[in-house]
Amino acid sequence: MLKKIEGIVIRTVDYGETNKILTLYTRETGKVGVMARGAKKPKSRLSAISQLFVYGQYLFQHTSGLGGLNQGEIIDSFRSIRNDLFLTSYAAYAAELVDKLTEERKPNPYLFEMLYQVLHALDEEKDPEVVLFIFELKMLRVAGITPQLDRCANCGLNEGRFHFSVSEGGLLCHRCLSVDPYQIPMTKRTSELLHLFAHIDLSRLGNISLKAETKKEIRHILNLYFDAYSGLYLKSKRFLDQLDRFNLE
Ligand SMILES: [Zn+2]
């Protein structure tokens, strides 16, 4: 049966001389693999639609195995991302995160929308680090490991200054600091931003400008939290961290 589905290419693997296997994240069906025969040939009608991060309508053979891609139509190719190495790396991380946190054919329209929003925001040249903070916090929710960011994770106190505790899974108030000897001090601004980023809708993100130290603090906390709870090792993330260090030097 031929099926027409809206999707975003989150992974491509070359197959043989001329073919590509695409992993699409689709609105209706979740993650699906399709075989794009001949897509590596520049003149193929499947070539443009088979590029990473393309958002399009895909018409393919819907079978229990790997269906063949019949044709497609681009809705948005996110050109600015494609033309920029840094933006490409951020988008690659977002796509890999979706890939790793999902199983085949489990629909999640919310996640599809999130992925679209993240690509759209990067393409519109919103601050890519902030875009990723927001996306990561949403993905933690998808993975069921969302940190406690509106009150102390240990006693529930919801005012005052907080530190962050990876082992307690969120904020730690001044009374509870002894609970975790590895708690991470952070500025009030950082704890407010973590809370904001966990709740804000990416599509409503304006032009926000953060100090480099604030971003560094948030990045550090999210990295430690992700490493501790997600159980994921993402190649695209390592590459991004290397780029970050390169940027700072
Ligand atoms: Zn407390």
From TrEMBL:
It comes from the Bacteria. Involved in DNA repair and RecF pathway recombination. HAMAP family: RecO. Keywords: DNA damage, DNA recombination, DNA repair. The keyword Disulfide bond does not apply. Residues 1-78 form the DNA replication/recombination mediator RecO N-terminal domain. PANTHER family: DNA REPAIR PROTEIN RECO. The gene is recO. This is DNA repair protein RecO. SUPFAM superfamilies: ArfGap/RecO-like zinc finger, Nucleic acid-binding proteins. Belongs to the RecO family.
